[in-house]
Design goal:
Strand content of chain A: 5-15%
Largest sheet of chain A: 4 strands, parallel
Helix content of chain A: 25-40%
CATH architecture of chain A: 3-Layer(aba) Sandwich
Helix content of chain B: 40-55%
Order of helices and strands of chain A: HHEHEHEHEH
Oligomer: heterodimer
Number of domains of chain B: 2
Largest interface: A-B, 40 and 47 residues
Distance between the termini of chain A: 55 Å
CATH class of chain A: Alpha Beta
Radius of gyration of chain B: 24 Å
Low-confidence stretches of chain B: none
Radius of gyration of chain A: 18 Å
Shape of chain A: elongated
Strand order of the largest sheet of chain A: 1-2-3-4
Strand order of the largest sheet of chain B: 1-2-5-4-3
Number of domains of chain A: 1
CATH superfamily of the largest domain in chain B: Cytochrome-c3 Hydrogenase, chain B
CATH topology of the largest domain in chain B: Cytochrome-c3 Hydrogenase, chain B
Structural class of chain A: alpha/beta
Largest sheet of chain B: 5 strands, mixed
CATH architecture of the largest domain in chain B: Orthogonal Bundle
CATH topology of chain A: Rossmann fold
CATH class of the largest domain in chain B: Mainly Alpha
Low-confidence stretches of chain A: none
Structural class of chain B: alpha+beta
Chain lengths: 170, 571
Amino acid sequence: MALGLEASLGDSVLTTKVDAVINWGRQYSLWPFVFGTACCAIEFMSAAASQLDISRWGAEVVRFSPRQADLLLVCGTISYKQAPVLKQIYEQMPEPKWVVAMGACASSGGIYDNYCTVQGVDTIIPVDVYISGCPPRPEAVLDALMKIQDQIKGETVLNDRHKDFKGILD
Amino acid sequence: MNTTALELLKAAFPDAPCTASVDAVVLTVQPAQLESTLARLKNDPALNFGLLLDVTAVDYLEYPEQQEARFAVVYTLRNWEKNMVVQVRVPVVDPEAGIPSATPFWASANWGEREAYDQYGVRFQGHPDLRRILNHWQFQGHPLRKDYAIHQGQICYETDSLEKEIRARLANNGVDQTLMDDINTEIMYLNLGPSHPATHGAIRILTALDGETILANVNEIGYLHRGFEKTAENRTYNQVIPLTDRLNYCSALMNNIAYAKAVESWLGIEITERAKFMRVILAEFFRVQDHLVCLAANLVDMGGLTNYWYLYNEKEASYDFISRLTGARLTSSFTRIGGMYRDFYEGWEADMEKQLRDIEKGTNDSLKLVLKNRIVHDRTQNVCVMPADLALSYGFTGPCLRASGIPFDLRKDNPYYHYDTFDFTIPVGSKGDIYDRIVIRYEEIFQSISIIRQAMKRIPKGPVTIRDNHVTLPPKAEIYKNIEGLAGHFKLVFDGIQVPAGEWYDSFEAANGELGFYFVSDGSGRPYKCKVRPPCFYMMGGFHEMIEGQMIADAVINLGSINIIGGELDR
């Protein structure tokens, strides 16, 4: 039984908040861009393949153009040589956008604590969710996806995200 | 030890010091004699070292024993017909002045010497294109020098334009402005990568196009350079094993085995019979996995997505078996120096047999779609041909070399782990085109399955590691109950296996080709230097020869057919 305003509008109209309805849409239609460089990308392939099937979370439309994607999955080691490429790709993605650092290398440099490896992609671009593991199991990718969805639920469309981020390349 | 090779080389070069080390002969020459020595090794029909496997340098700055010069450059050459390996060592007194380049003799020297220059700062006189290859162009210094601190990272702000290089390549191919004016067209420059779905990783393929035809191509690698060699120098020998997993991550266990075999060969360790058979079974199983991923991805690039499901689903199912055995799906770290981490679990034979049957089914299903498919034939036959002589010159090994018609396979030519007693054949191509490379991989899957079945019948019972307290950890009961066991465990974990001082090269037939390891040991528990001879590094070095003159879409499937794996390519 409808109450308040909805009671007088009949069955055809629902009232809600703009945030709620937009976030609902965003949560279940994430379009990932897979920045796959190393071993983790192979495990992402498994997450996308039929056994685990990432489309159950509405995120199966993997885009190979950053301009069509809103979820950046950094799968693998990022070297200093790769860093400007990653930053450029992130900047090409339209707002709003979310970033997942998949695996130990993307999160912190992992076992490669040396002269050529960036010690975590959060020194270049803002990261929303980190996945541990070297490489993580594909189920962990799905877990990260659900965490992003939870995060989206609590956001508001009025605020820009990560406006004041400064990384080592800025 | 190869005594015939040693005698042959001693007779051929009476003035140069010549010693044997594992399977290789080490020949030390001075820079002044380098060119004549290399020319003779390549061109003398009795020597005929047609394959330059690897080029690297050694920095002896912290080496306990005094050397002739701070640097030495090492060329590793192979005569594939007679199973001879020679390493030519050249002391380098002044790295700035450098030594003569080997590029006139072998095309693979181009990338090999670029890497030695990039990592050690040794110059090569007469090299056509001496610039960095793994590190970025804004990098200062040379990271593998012993006085370069491992943590000293350097930020790269922008990507190299490669404009000079692509123009040089265009000029080399005879394309200049007058020609372009004549045919009334303009060159279009197109970058594939470093982040592109067709590159299967991070490689940059810069092409100069006339319409869809590739006039010139320059490739840039190093986007996944993660300092394997520098990191390995700071680890004990066993601690390097997890790093080897991440070289070719599609067949991680093969790298583990190749690495352990290389260290054991110098230590003179004979592993147990059961461990040998385990290594054969697992290596062949991972060869199958590697080929499945390669074919699946390659056929997706061609538009055959159904093949991806047929082939990749079998790989995904195999992961279940691998994780039951090793505890991990991708990065198994399952070997130890002196054997395997642990034995097979109870009932593994039935699981393996089921897995093999499924793989056969998936592969046959996919073959039905491919073998008589006109589209596949048209897209792959006579496309991106690599003739045998060029393939050898560029240092091709493995399925890609065999596709060009050279029947070289270390399992047959330098057998280890009883490979000479297994019944299997080496598929060889006739043309060296994409079709040959694809079909050879299909056939190798069936050959490997046959080897696994034979090995499963013959595998004996017994321990999987040797019992030597200087090499393998003592059993837990001894560690907890007596002081010798505890002390042995402590010493091995903290100091590592004490490896006698020396230098050696050992190789293994991995899924992609000859995977070699070149070590320099100073007698401690950590490698003084550990250089990987990655098969796909040299295949990428010859990529432009295959795709120039072809269409842009051919370049994409050609890249898939040579199976470039970033971890191994850039290390």
